[in-house]
Amino acid sequence: DLRFPKGKFKNLKFLFGKKQIPSQIESVNFYSDNTLKEVKGHAIFIKTRKTTAQVSLSPSKNSLITPQYEKYETEKIEFSTSAVSLQLNPLKGGTIEKAIFNDISQKPLFGTIPHGYYESPKWSPDFFSGHFLGTDREDTKLTDLQKAVVYIPKDKNLFPVAFPVIVEVDSKIGLIRKTYYLYQDIPCFDLVYLHK
């Protein structure tokens, strides 16, 4: 996340030396005078002995594109890049059904273990990946395993570093937004939680 003082900057790009590096903008907030307030995104930095990165700021707002998203409400939904594939279950809060890292294996390395998978009754509940479990002051269990809405960017070309998949769950504790960032060329993903 980058934050800027009011009235200073209207655009940015990431440079490594004099060369522009792969980066993407995921969300942008502007002040009332159309200058940048906050930018969220990803950039890939190449590590060298002397690593110096530079953020270049310019006066034009036009080249900052805020992505548009499509809404999905399905039972299961799958996303992939060349490096990673995720299958999510929106009926259970956008939990991970399967996670495949193509450079490692074509089989899922983790995901949801369904009810009854293990013979022992001690292990009879479902086991989920990519969910929240907590308790309130009265020791009541809270989760984000309710039905979720999934948002996918309309233009995948806006995300050369990591493809975002947004999952919103209206839970007992308020709106929970989970964003899965599937990296394009690196076999990994990030999961970022935001409680509103």
- Specify the number of helices: 0
Overall mean pLDDT? 78
The 3D shape can be described as globular
Low-pLDDT runs: 58-63
Query: What characterizes the major β-sheet?
Result: 5 strands, antiparallel
> What class do helices, strands and sheet pairing give?
mainly beta
Task: Bin the strand percentage.
Answer: over 45%
Structure summary:
The chain has strands at residues 2-3, 11-16, 19-20, 23-30, 36-43, 53-58, 69-72, 77-80, 84-89, 95-101, 110-111, 133-135, 141-143, 148-153, 162-171, 174-183, 189-195. It contains no helices and 17 strands.
What do these coordinates show?
By secondary structure, this protein is mainly β. The model is unreliable at 58-63 (pLDDT under 50). The chain is globular, with a radius of gyration of 20 Å. The protein contains no helices and 17 strands. A hairpin with an 8-residue loop joins strand 14 and strand 15 (162-171). It has strands at residues 2-3, 11-16, 19-20, 23-30, 36-43, 53-58, 69-72, 77-80, 84-89, 95-101, 110-111, 133-135, 141-143, 148-153, 162-171, 174-183, 189-195.
Notable features of this structure?
globular, four-stranded antiparallel β-sheet, 196 residues, five-stranded antiparallel β-sheet, 17 strands
